[in-house]
Amino acid sequence: MKLFRRLSSALPALVLLSGGAALADDTAADLAAKASASHWGYDFLADLTTDIGPRISGSKAAQDAAAWAADRLKKAGFDEVHLEKFPVTYWARGAEEADIVQPRLQHLAVAALGHSVPTPSGGIEAEVVVFKSFQALRDAPDGSLKGRIAVITQRMVRAQNGEGYGIAVGSRVAGPSEAAKKGAVALVIRSVGTDHHRLPHTGLTLYAKDAPKIPAAAISNPDADLLERMAAKGPVKLRLKLENKSTDSQAVTVVGEIKGREHPEQVVLISGHLDSWELGTGAIDDGAGVAIAAGAAKAIIDQGLHPKRTIRVVMFGAEEIGGGPVDAYEAAHAKEAGNIVIAGESDFGAGRIYNAAVPAGSLGSPFAKQLTAAILPLGVDMLHEGSSHGGADIEGIHEKDGVPLVDFGQDGTHYFDIHHTADDTLDKVDPAELAQNIAVWASFAWLAADSDVDFRALSAPAGSAK
Amino acid sequence: MKLFRRLSSALPALVLLSGGAALADDTAADLAAKASASHWGYDFLADLTTDIGPRISGSKAAQDAAAWAADRLKKAGFDEVHLEKFPVTYWARGAEEADIVQPRLQHLAVAALGHSVPTPSGGIEAEVVVFKSFQALRDAPDGSLKGRIAVITQRMVRAQNGEGYGIAVGSRVAGPSEAAKKGAVALVIRSVGTDHHRLPHTGLTLYAKDAPKIPAAAISNPDADLLERMAAKGPVKLRLKLENKSTDSQAVTVVGEIKGREHPEQVVLISGHLDSWELGTGAIDDGAGVAIAAGAAKAIIDQGLHPKRTIRVVMFGAEEIGGGPVDAYEAAHAKEAGNIVIAGESDFGAGRIYNAAVPAGSLGSPFAKQLTAAILPLGVDMLHEGSSHGGADIEGIHEKDGVPLVDFGQDGTHYFDIHHTADDTLDKVDPAELAQNIAVWASFAWLAADSDVDFRALSAPAGSAK
Questions:
Q1: Residue A286, SS3 per DSSP
Q2: Amino acid B302: pLDDT
Q3: Touching check for A50 and chain B: CB below 8 Å?
Q4: So where are chain A's domains?
Q5: What b/e readout covers B59-97, taking b as 16+ CB neighbours within 10 angstroms?
Q6: How close, in Å, is residue B17 to chain A by CA atoms?
Q7: A402 reaches B (C-beta below 8 A)
Q8: Percent share of chain B, pLDDT over 90
Q9: Is A319 a catalytic residue?
Q10: Cβ of B428 and A50 within 8 Å?
């Protein structure tokens, strides 16, 4: 789970469903019931985290994970399974240490940010300048951080839909170059997370072209508190040592399809990403997502259903480390982008789904009425219209190729306690909540793939359609 | 916080208080109100964790902490402050690593147990045998663990009064020698803790004299889950490397007194322990306890109260690493043990106090009635009789010298999520709950010290008293 772009935009219409608003299609109801009761998705996730574990893009583990997942899909009865490889920078975490060395030695729990350059081999030792927000750092005079380690201690707000992330994550993504422009020799940020554990949150940083690349790392929330308290008392000196390195490698995306019986060229794409940060075992981010997408398709296979359109399950191979997956997928599928009827990605853990956003103009379609009826018994009691965010891996095909998106709102109240930390392990996933997700996605995939609705035409601006 | 000995014993009498059972003494009520409103205790704790931090017994940090605390007590207006030094083994944690190396590399979050011997410098690599309880390991045939790493994955139960600890902690304290007797080359245990974070719980282990000393460490709960799942599938090989070392050093206990105006030789002893494990900063274990004991006395000083008896605040210097503090204190105070009227230790974090246990026979005394009235407005609505547990540091003077104990029951529902981990940091302490503890202890200390009640006589067996 990476960035919330325009999360608060484009929610123009709300429909609160009453019990009798629509009648469920028996096939969809049966499918949802069976999907809810199946253990296949949870077993997939348990085995992925146990037998493979951490799998950062470009690593051997990520390549093993792709082979493992493809094998699992083949055994599940998908009509076609293949791998798609593309170049990626393999960023390998090394030893990492952060210590307060003045006024008194205290060890900090630290994690380098993804793509951070390493420190010089002896580490960096410098006095810190603490900023309580990223904006405060932006407002600092040019040159004012010369020779210093900049520290941003901005806090992330907890919210059900996770929107605090979009507000806080700027310090991680853009902070290092901003600090470098003002002369800083390194940047340390408070973790972009809502917990209070000594487990730092890693995540991607992006260097600007016009600034020196300085080492960047996150410390845990309690450590950021400590630094703030110390800095309020007097000068604080920090020692930072990061030994990560970057090499050229390959990422692997896994694709499995249930071929459409009438329009095999028309594709309903459901997805997650198989790669994960390497501190944890990638259970909520995003083992859950690939288990949900694959589990949904598996439920359709198990019911013996043969939809009109093709259902394509994609397990993207490089969401976390960025810069490649969307482009790679777009490049490989440019010719058929127009055939992707609708796309969705599950990349927000396994928290309960409570609402759904469908493409603009489609709320009145038979598809949406059937979906509404199918997922209400699963506890999804609100349908939005106008989805424009659907996960980092599919935003590109939406923006560039106009692929319509579906987006299911999940309870992410506790997601950012765990996200990108060593704590991202299987025990954080509730099997019942995972099953609810699988049932909702199975309902969606079946109904969208067995429908004739043309989401592009419905969502086209008035006047241009029909 | 170490062991719950006989936790469930000796709670013969319960008194549920009705609102009008007793009238509060105005002095005690004023004291409790002022203590509740004071920031002194929280500031003490914040500064201890910020300015000193981790302070394992025998370390320079622990010695610095003692000097710091003594200075703080002097400035607070105690009549007399001194340090008491005694020999201790300084156990210093070194680099530590645990990896599953077969069937696949996965890193585990590990912490050596206190007093564990190190591994040979290259580490130990061996196949594991997993036991789901300590009893299952005890039941294993002699020699059956030859050349293996024994793993105990017994889970700890969560309870308000923390009694799950006493049930689970045997694997940590006695497990290494039991495993060694059966031929194991190392012992790895599931953390004795109730959380699900990748933060292992350290703690003391005690080697038996009749078994080889083998390295011993705890892994986090999610890692224990992973090992269980892997071991259910096939052989698992573990590599363990611990580089800790032990040296002779000195521990320091801090003592501060408010001298009694009528019976200065009679002592009401309230305490906590100043030493802490070094993974965290010792906020709940037991910075809170020393802040509570010192804060209670400070509130009495601030009110200008001069009790008949002496109030002695003791910050014990070697609770965690064991084997010295009680004996050292007993040896130093053997001559005056008979003058310790009553003793208590706060060593269970800063969770809200909900009940109190006073010495047998004292429930009907004017002291108990006054205490009841004073602490009811603080939310302590139940008084037990027959306290026999009062914290690891004072059990010795109770057992050997017959010193009567007071014991306040605290809400420890979440205490063992944090206990002995890197997560033991200031943010885990609620200032309002800490203040409630301080107000209760201040009420107790004042009323016990200004009373003439003789707890020893009251609790003596019928026929021997009066």
A1: helix
A2: 98
A3: yes
A4: 13-91+248-459, 95-243
A5: bebbbbbbebbbebbeebebeebeebebebbbbebeebe
A6: 38
A7: no
A8: 83
A9: yes
A10: no
Q: Which amino acid is located at A398 in the chain?
A: H
The distance of A427 to chain B (nearest Cα, Å) reads: 7
Instruction: Spot the catalytic one: A84, A178, A278, A319.
Output: A319
Residue corresponding to tokens 């390493």? A118
To the question of domain B95-243 being in CATH 3.50.30.30, the answer is yes
A312 CB-side CA count, 13 A: 23
- Cα–Cα separations (whole angstroms), residue A157 to A132, A168, A173, B112: 14, 8, 17, 35
Give the model confidence (pLDDT) of B267-304 as tens digits. 999 999 999 999 999 999 999 999 999 999 999 999 99
Structure tokens at A28: 């969809």
Query: Thinking of the domain B13-91+248-459, which architecture would CATH place it in?
Result: 3-Layer(aba) Sandwich (3.40)
Residues of B in contact with A101 (CB under 8 A): none
Sign of the torsion angle spanned by Cα atoms A110, B121, B223, A76 = positive
Q: Which of B69, B77, B127 is closest to B102 using CA atoms?
A: B127
DSSP, residue by residue, A247-284: EEEEEEEEEEEE--SSEEEEEEEEEEE----SSS--II
| pLDDT reported for residue B13 | 37
Residue A466 sits at the chain B interface (C-beta within 8 Å): no
Task: Give the whole-number percent of chain A exceeding pLDDT 70.
Answer: 92
Q: Does B50 touch chain A (CB under 8 A)?
A: yes
Q: What is the pLDDT of residues B47-76, one digit of tens each?
A: 999 999 999 999 999 999 999 999 999 999
ipTM of the shown complex: 0.91
- Kindly report the backbone phi and psi dihedral angles of residue A203, in degrees, each rounded to the nearest multiple of 5, phi listed first: 150, 170
